[in-house]
């Protein structure tokens, strides 16, 4: 059955009105494209949902030490939502709106990095039986080549420096003349490159600590993540780190190319290389929050410490990983098997 001519005319009228209503890019726009309504709404909603979940976790577990993550996720969501008004032709050259969105979107991820630093310190401190009951920031762990309680402080200070450099660069980028904008690009590139290099070092620190821990406790290997909470927390850190490093690499290349480059002038890269990897990075912690995993790790370490203490009471000193493993095996072996 052929469609009624009136239906075709109505459909054509609707399409024409939609095309006419679609905002057009103005010559004075700060962006090289009209932001996509659906894409920015989706990412804003995803980050808002993650933020709500993370705030709920923080309040439930009273983990105020990690409040930086829900704060950063909230501001990240605001950054995505603020891109939507920039679609309108009258707002495309709105400097205040552009600065607000840009700073929220490019600076909020610094909070994601800080959260990972905090989790690392608490994870290693909880996993090392020798740190149980030991206070002090400088307490060393045989798993970490930086004292675990100093890791967050060391890397957060580094990130604050790179954050301020990026903020200064972002402010210059929104200046009113070409020379100031180009200078802002270089300053921001220096900041984001320093931040990326710092996080690469942190990732290597995490991998080394995990390898050392697995030599003593094979059950903490990544493939045991479904059943072992310590292994799961390490895997979550790796997933978050991959997302953070992808986003850092994208921003470094974007600033190196400049405003006329491929990455800056095409929104698809902002979605796929910035929004997507970072929502995965924070989303995994919205689903599997760190605090109960750290508590489980600490409980496991206390059990290991008790087992090692039993061997010391028998007159031995488990000074090597092999001896420690033998000590745990001896304690866990049923009496019937020993007999």
From TrEMBL:
<dbReference type="Pfam" id="PF04479">
    <property type="entry name" value="RTA1"/>
</dbReference>
<feature type="compositionally biased region" description="Basic and acidic residues">
    <location>
        <begin position="306"/>
        <end position="315"/>
    </location>
</feature>
<feature type="transmembrane region" description="Helical">
    <location>
        <begin position="98"/>
        <end position="120"/>
    </location>
</feature>
<feature type="transmembrane region" description="Helical">
    <location>
        <begin position="150"/>
        <end position="168"/>
    </location>
</feature>
<keyword id="KW-1133">Transmembrane helix</keyword>
<keyword id="KW-0732">Signal</keyword>
<feature type="transmembrane region" description="Helical">
    <location>
        <begin position="67"/>
        <end position="86"/>
    </location>
</feature>
<protein>
    <recommendedName>
        <fullName>RTA1-domain-containing protein</fullName>
    </recommendedName>
</protein>
<feature type="signal peptide">
    <location>
        <begin position="1"/>
        <end position="21"/>
    </location>
</feature>
<keyword id="KW-0812">Transmembrane</keyword>
<feature type="transmembrane region" description="Helical">
    <location>
        <begin position="37"/>
        <end position="55"/>
    </location>
</feature>
<feature type="transmembrane region" description="Helical">
    <location>
        <begin position="188"/>
        <end position="209"/>
    </location>
</feature>
<keyword id="KW-0472">Membrane</keyword>
<feature type="transmembrane region" description="Helical">
    <location>
        <begin position="230"/>
        <end position="248"/>
    </location>
</feature>
<feature type="region of interest" description="Disordered">
    <location>
        <begin position="306"/>
        <end position="339"/>
    </location>
</feature>
<feature type="transmembrane region" description="Helical">
    <location>
        <begin position="268"/>
        <end position="289"/>
    </location>
</feature>
<dbReference type="InterPro" id="IPR007568">
    <property type="entry name" value="RTA1"/>
</dbReference>
<dbReference type="GO" id="GO:0016020">
    <property type="term" value="C:membrane"/>
</dbReference>
């Amino acid at each position: 059955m052929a469609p009624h001519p009136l239906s075709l005319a109505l459909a054509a009228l609707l399409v024409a009105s939609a095309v006419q209503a679609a905002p057009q890019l103005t010559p004075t726009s700060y962006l090289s494209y009209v932001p996509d309504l659906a894409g920015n709404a989706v990412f804003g909603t995803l980050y808002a949902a993650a933020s709500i979940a993370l705030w709920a976790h923080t309040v439930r577990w009273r983990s105020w030490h990690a409040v930086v993550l829900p704060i950063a996720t909230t501001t990240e969501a605001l950054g995505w939502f603020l891109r939507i008004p920039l679609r309108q032709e009258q707002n495309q050259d709105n400097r205040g709106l552009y600065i607000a969105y840009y700073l929220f979107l490019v600076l909020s991820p610094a909070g994601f990095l800080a959260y990972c630093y905090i989790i690392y310190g608490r994870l290693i401190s909880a996993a090392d039986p020798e740190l149980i009951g030991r206070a002090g920031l400088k307490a060393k762990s045989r798993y970490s080549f930086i004292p675990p309680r100093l890791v967050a402080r060391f890397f957060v200070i580094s990130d604050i420096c790179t954050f301020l450099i990026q903020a200064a660069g972002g402010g210059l980028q929104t200046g009113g003349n070409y020379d100031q904008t180009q200078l802002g690009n270089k300053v921001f590139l220096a900041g984001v490159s320093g931040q990326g290099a710092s996080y690469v070092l942190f990732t290597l620190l995490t991998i080394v600590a995990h390898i050392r821990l697995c030599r003593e406790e094979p059950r903490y290997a990544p493939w045991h993540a479904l059943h072992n909470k310590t292994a799961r927390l390490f895997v979550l850190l790796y997933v978050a780190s991959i997302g953070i490093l992808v986003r850092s690499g994208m921003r470094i290349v974007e600033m190196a190319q400049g405003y006329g480059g491929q990455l800056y002038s095409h929104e698809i890269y902002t979605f796929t290389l910035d929004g997507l990897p970072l929502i995965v990075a924070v989303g995994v912690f919205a689903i599997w929050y760190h605090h109960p995993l750290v508590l489980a790790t600490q409980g496991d370490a206390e059990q290991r410490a008790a087992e090692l203490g039993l061997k010391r009471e028998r007159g031995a000193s488990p000074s090597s990983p092999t001896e420690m493993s033998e000590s745990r095996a001896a304690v866990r072996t049923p009496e019937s098997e020993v007999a």
